Amino acid sequence: MNKTLTNKELKEVAADIRKLILTTTHNAGVGHTGGSLSETDILTALFFRVMNVDPKNPRMANRDRFILSKGHATPGYYSTLARRGFFPLETLDSFDQLGTILQGHPDMNKAPGVDMSSGSLGQGLSCGIGMAMASGDLGLDFTSFVLMGDGESTEGQIWEAAMFAGASNKRIKNIVAIVDYNKVQLASLTKEAVDIGDLSIKYKAFGWHTIEVDGHNMDELVQALLDAKEEAKKGPVAVIAHTVKGKGVSFMENQCAWHGKAPNKKEYEAAMAEIDLGGTK
Ligand SMILES: Cc1ncc(C[n+]2csc(CCOP(=O)(O)OP(=O)(O)O)c2C)c(N)n1
């Protein structure tokens, strides 16, 4: 079980994770920094409070499942897993190197704590729904959480999965979809690529219960995710988390240039100093 951290402690953990992200991408010279910084508070709330996980027993049968459907954002995912104790912090130094367990995109057969391999956008929700269905079928009691991006949300497979889980004759239980709605994708704003608009209305139309939240307000985020887990006992839940790409580092915020870039030495030092000064609300 998770040791219950206060929301203040969770904010401190999130700041630690942001620094691990910057250090990991800086050392490796590669990595998706922007989308890792936007998902940090969500991952912190999930892995340090909301989800039932045991870092010493990563394959525990009744653990809550997590799928990083936006699989490129591994610096954030691996930093969270390492900070939570699934593997040593030093392993982050091997990120994206030849032979590492920490591949550029998550490999469930290599990294402890990774429940599903991902990287090809759009596939995670289908897998998460399958896991949620297995929860009931196996007589286990776990919730399946899937984190997606807003750019990713233009993938058709997501909406096939959403239609299935929300259908009146299905009403799949124990699935929580979370959208890291940072409004920026690989090379442009999401609204300039395909304006996906109000995702809450869309998920509602597909039969999902929806919750909108500020994805950087730890108090609200923890409550929203706890509510989502409870509500998922009745049917599918979508949490639309409004976030900022590059959150916590002023010159990275809202910039698609930082989608898939690592900070150089000067940028790294400036970014680390900003995290030390600020952190999240
Ligand atoms: C099927 C597929 N198409 C294209 C890509 C290349 N790609 C990687 S990240 C990305 C943009 C994703 O944007 P978003 O979902 O908003 O992610 P975030 O901003 O949270 O990093 C793209 C197009 C991919 N990984 N998979």
Describe this entry's structure for a reader:
This protein has one domain (about 5-275): Rossmann fold (3-Layer(aba) Sandwich). By secondary structure, it is of the alpha/beta class. The chain is built from 9 helices and 5 strands, in the order H-H-E-H-H-E-H-E-H-H-E-H-E-H. Helix 1 (about 5-30) crosses helix 3, helix 1 packs antiparallel against helix 9 and helix 2 (about 35-50) crosses helix 8 (about 220-230). A 5-stranded parallel sheet has the order 1-2-3-5-4, with helices on both faces. Strand 4 (about 210-215), helix 8 (about 220-230) and strand 5 form a beta-alpha-beta unit. Bound molecules: thiamine diphosphate (TPP). Thiamine diphosphate (TPP) binds near residues 119 and 186.
Question: Which features does this protein show?
Answer:
alpha/beta; 5-stranded parallel beta sheet; globular; Rossmann fold; binds thiamine diphosphate; 281 residues
Q: What is the name of the CATH topology? A: Rossmann fold
The low-pLDDT segments are: none
Mean pLDDT: 96
Number of domains: 1
Cα-based radius of gyration, to the nearest Å: 17 Å
Bound molecules: thiamine diphosphate
In what order do the strands lie side by side in the largest sheet?
Answer: 1-2-3-5-4
Strand composition percent: 5-15%
Apparent shape: globular
Main sheet record: 5 strands, parallel
The CATH homologous superfamily is called Thiamin diphosphate (ThDP)-binding fold, Pyr/PP domains
The total of beta strands comes to 5
Structural class: alpha/beta
What is the overall number of helices?
9
CATH class category: Alpha Beta
Instruction: Determine the fraction of residues in helical runs and give it as a percent range.
Output: 40-55%
CATH architecture descriptor text? 3-Layer(aba) Sandwich
How far apart, in Å, are the first and last alpha carbons?
26 Å
Instruction: Please trace the helix and strand order, writing H or E for each element.
Output: HHEHHEHEHHEHEH
